[in-house]
Amino acid sequence: MASRKRRLDTSGEVRECLDSLLSSEEDDLLEDDSTTDSSGGELDREHELPPDSDEEMQFVVGERTQFPSSTPKKPTLSKKIPPTPTSPIPSPTQQQPGPSHCREPPATTSARQQRGRRATRATSRDTDDEEFDADNPQPLRVRRRPSITGATRRASRSRSRSRRSQSRQRRSQTSSSHEGEERIGRHRREVSPHPDLIVDLGADTMSSNCGFEWQCQPSHTRLSRTLSRNIIHEAPGPTVEAQGLTECVSVFELFFPDNIILEIVQRTNQKIAIYRQAYKKKDASVADTNPLEIRALIGILLLAGVQRSNHLNYLELWHSRMGSPPYKAAMSSTRFAFLINSLRFDNPDTRQERRRTDRFAPVRSIWDSFIERCRRMYTPGENLTIDEQLLAFRGRAVFRMYIPKKPAKYGLKLILCCDNKSKYLLGAIPYVGKQEPPPQGDLSLGHYYVRQLTRPYHQSNRNVTVDNWFTSIPFAMDLQSNCGLTLVGTIKSNKKEIPSQMRSMEGRIPGSSAFLYDDYMTLVSYAPLTKKGKSSKLVHLLSTMHSTPTLGDHGKPEVVLFYNSTKRGVDAFDQMCATYSCSRKTQRWPLCIFYGMLNAGGINSWIVHSANCTSAGRPPLRRRTFLMELAMELIRPWAQHRLTRPTLSCELVALIRSAFDLPSQPLQAAQAPEREVALLHNSHFNPEKRCKDCPGTAKKSKYVCRGCKVSNCARHLYTYCISCISKGPSCAQCGQPVEEEVVD
Fold first, then answer.
1. pTM of the entire structure?
2. Cα 602 → chain centroid
3. With contact defined as beta carbons under 8 Å apart, do 436 and 587 qualify?
4. Highest mean pLDDT, choosing among 89-103, 181-195, 529-543, 693-707
5. Does the pLDDT value for residue 125 go beyond 90?
6. If DSSP states are collapsed to H, E and C, what string results for 665-681?
7. Residues 668, 548: Cα–Cα separation, whole Å
8. How far is residue 451's CA from residue 209's CA, in Å, rounded to a whole number?
9. How many CB atoms lie within 10 A of CB 507?
10. Are 596 and 585 in contact (CB under 8 A)?
11. Buried b (16+ CB within 10 A) or exposed e, 629-641
């Protein structure tokens, strides 16, 4: 066979065919088969054809395409070679004498030959047959299957994606002919209007066990105009007092104004005075606080929340290598722990008397001020959401709650009212347990909370979305008739006003809905459709906003779809609080409430900032960036004030200036600020003339400033030449020359 290949290579067209058809594995097969006949004997060399012969080319082609099977097949070539008068091409069905490709395959073959024949079959199947045109002969071409490469795989995946996209388009076009139908698994069913999805109760009226009568037919047909109770006359957004403010600190001060900060400073200083009596050394860590320091403390808490380090030990925040510079620039770790432990929010002298009627007395003053500011600064949209929030707390409190479905499980329960669209906190009421006498009177507790939270928005035609803890039939009637608000919410099936037919699953198919109507109320009993196509329970909803049995997507009632779209206002707000929470572990519940106020104030500030920036035509900051800049701006004034202290070390001065990009040049005498050493640090002033900028174990200095009379060592002095000032060093703070004093 090797000699045959060399002879066939001399032919141009045949060589081109062989180069594309023959592979290394098939060459071995042909070499083995060409030297043996059907009986296993060696073929005579006289059967070989002369070179450049068309007949020999037919042998090669036939041998590659017809050898695997005993039945001759049509040669699988791209173009057939035109016949010549001297050597016509025989028909594929004719028996060719001599060559082994026309004989019957041997009875026994080796495994290598079988593998070669399978490869030859695959090659013959992959070639293309085209009809031969005698008038326009073409050279011999053979198309082979391309090798599997990375580009081939990517092209194949691209074609698969294209086919899937075309299939989806065909399905969407087909589904247009099935409008009003829903696919469940492989089956379709109509959703609206379909008599099976709206249950026919078979009566005009229906009464409950308590005698409450419902209508089975709506009082309104499909409406072409919006009902008057669903028309809103106010545009949502920041109020006039909050409009135009985009700076982080200015927006935050809307919710924590000076009166709240001063109240905290006053009550905290009262507690500090009591704690200070237990300290023998009255240093700066137990000194009284001021508004700048309290704002810096708030900035530290917000910064820890943004960096997700609110539950780290405070010593890690002030670590020399792992800590963040803004913490060290604001205050020392000892001072931070002392202030957190000393924070108070009310007058301790009257606390016990106020607690007799109000369990929330230790934090009531600043809480009411904060909630009032939240209501004043923003006008909500058309939908309000009222739900509960649980502030994580495991300390001692009479009204601590256990809610197993909440992430924290134990904590303080707050009833919140939020704008559904912006998630802005509009109001909140703490749950303080059962009280005697009950503040709600004859109303249920949920009814009382909703009335109190929505009081500023009565007669505004807004909608309130609540869960089944709040909803009741008398509550919905009172909210519509007396408060001018509509209600949408789930309702418990054990309410006495619900007829027994609305609770029964008998005869109900999955996805069906039953409707009952009052003058302006709609009661829906919906059988949810699960993934398995079954329904095990009914869901009941009450609405004073909807008045027709309208079905939406997938056959769900419009009341259900509206409830699902408006029920997450408080849940989203709670999730935002948990994302950048500044809450720290504490055993005092007033401090836990204060942390919750800071979280809510940060979210409300960012919402007002975003609305004002959008109105001004510029993009708002992201919430993380907003809180980061707010924390730094709250810390900056107090850090600058610390630079005026004479006992601040050089390392800390450099850290403060680098953290807040302050000028690093020393202050000149004309620019030196007034000292407050005698006012703020008189109790811990060192009379032994040690260097004020060195640690407490530093040696005594022989240099004393003439201006401020403070000792300085040689490391903390600045010298001037004799032409500028009298010979000798000068003070770095006041710029005056220092005089040498010998200290024993």
1. 0.65
2. 18
3. no
4. 529-543
5. no
6. CCCCCCCCCCCCHHHHC
7. 80
8. 28
9. 8
10. no
11. ebbbbbbbbbbbb
- Output Rg (C-alpha) for the chain, integer angstroms: 45
Q: How far apart are CA 633 and CA 725, in angstroms?
A: 40
CA 691 from centre of chain: 53
Residues 6+ apart with CB under 8 A from 154: none
For residues 509 and 190, is the Cβ–Cβ distance under 8 A? no
Query: For 491-533, what is each residue's pLDDT tens digit?
Result: 998 888 888 888 887 878 888 888 898 888 899 998 888 766 6
Strands 486-490 and 425-430: unpaired
Give me the DSSP letters along 519-544. Answer: SS-EEEEE----TTS---S-EEEEES
Q: At 595, give phi and psi (nearest 5°).
A: -60, -40
Among 337, 338, 315, 318, which residue's Cα sits nearest to residue 329? 318
What's the 3-state SS for 199-233?
Answer: CCCCCCEEECCCCCEEECCCCCCCCCCCCHHHCCC
> CA angle at residue 737 from 736 to 740, to 5 degrees?
140
- Tens of pLDDT, residue by residue over 294-307, are 999 999 999 999 99
Burial of 490 per CB tally in 10 Å (0-12, 13-18, 19+): buried
Nearest to 579 by CA among 426, 464, 364, 423: 423
Residue 636, amino acid? R
Pairing of the two strands 522-526 and 711-712: unpaired
Coil, helix or strand for 34? helix
Q: Three-state DSSP class for 197?
A: coil
Say how far apart CA 364 and CA 154 lie, in whole Å.
Answer: 66
CA 605, 606, 611, 612 torsion-angle sign: positive
Helix or strand holding residue 427 (H, E): strand 425-430
What type of residue sits at position 284? A
**Helix (H), strand (E) counts: the chain:** 22, 20
- What separation in angstroms does the CA of 584 have from each of 144, 230, 394, 408, 431? 71, 43, 12, 14, 21
CB-based burial of residue 146 (10 Å sphere; 0-12 exposed, 13-18 middle, 19+ buried)?
exposed
As a whole number of angstroms, the distance between CA 486 and CA 418 comes to 16
CB 611 within 8 A of CB 238: yes
Residues 6 or more apart whose CB falls under 8 angstroms from that of 79 comprise: 130, 132, 137, 138, 139, 140, 141
Tokens read off for 249: 């600190």
